[in-house]
Design goal:
This protein is 33% helix and 16% strand. It has a 4-stranded antiparallel sheet with strand order 1-2-4-3, with helices on both faces. The protein has 6 helices and 4 strands. The longest helix is centred in the middle third of the chain and has 18 residues. Helix 2 packs antiparallel against helix 4. It has a single domain, classed as 3-Layer(aba) Sandwich (NADH Oxidase), CATH 3.40.109.10. The chain binds flavin mononucleotide. The site of flavin mononucleotide has 10 residues, from strand 3. The site of flavin mononucleotide (FMN) has 10 residues, from strand 3.
């Protein structure tokens, strides 16, 4: 698992190569297997391979969605807001499970944030997508995961680069406080 986590980097440039049906099936399985609060499965997935639709999705917000243009597959994650108050968490877990499954198949992926983003002054990015994909009113869009074969890859992470100052033991310790505690043998 750590090896997979070290390798997974956001991919924003994709080859036009289509993703094999069997690989898409595995992505779907990873999404459906992801844990959900009270096992309510509040998250649903809209798979888009249609180039015109993907191009429209790439315009769902002014910045950070254009990478979708070259992606052969976009998975739109939507949460049923009436089923649970933690649909965001449910959908987020599914999103990262899809990204890790993609990486395990040598596919690249990138999260495109939709929730809380605007399409225009008067329309949210989620409303724009809901209209495009006929999404019912009791669902909200969390994000879109762009997936495809990588044309370029960022460097893998390394264990040496991890910032352990973000990890606290027993109580929250400010960095300075921590250094003093170590010096004083506490
Ligand atoms: C909640 C979330 C929202 C993100 N939104 C976007 C986005 O809208 N557009 C984009 O290009 N990347 C987006 N990303 C990707 C991050 O920029 C990327 O994960 C981060 O810079 C770390 O790089 P890495 O994925 O290569 O480790 C998002 C990632 C997360 C987890």
């Amino acid at each position: 698992m750590i090896d997979l986590l070290l390798k997974r980097r956001s991919t924003r440039l994709f080859s036009p190569q289509k993703i094999e049906t069997a690989k898409i099936e595995k992505l779907v399985q990873s999404a459906l297997l992801s844990p959900t609060s009270r096992n309510l499965h509040s998250c649903e997935f809209v798979l888009i391979e249609d180039e015109v639709k993907i191009s429209k999705l790439s315009k769902s917000k002014p910045h950070g969605a254009s990478l979708l243009t070259g992606a052969p597959l976009a998975i739109v994650l939507i949460g049923n807001t009436e089923t649970t108050d933690v649909w965001i968490e449910d959908a987020s877990i599914a999103a990262i499970d899809i990204q890790l499954e993609a990486e395990s198949q040598e596919l690249g992926s990138c999260w495109v944030q939709i929730r809380g983003r605007k399409y225009s002054e008067n329309q949210s990015a989620g409303e724009y997508i809901a209209a495009l994909l006929d999404i019912p009113h009791n669902y909200e869009v969390l994000a879109i995961i762009a997936v495809g074969y990588k044309t370029s890859t960022s460097e893998n992470y390394t264990l040496e680069s991890l910032n352990y100052s973000r990890v606290h033991k027993e109580v929250f310790q400010e960095q300075k406080d921590r250094e003093t505690r170590v010096k004083d043998g506490r």
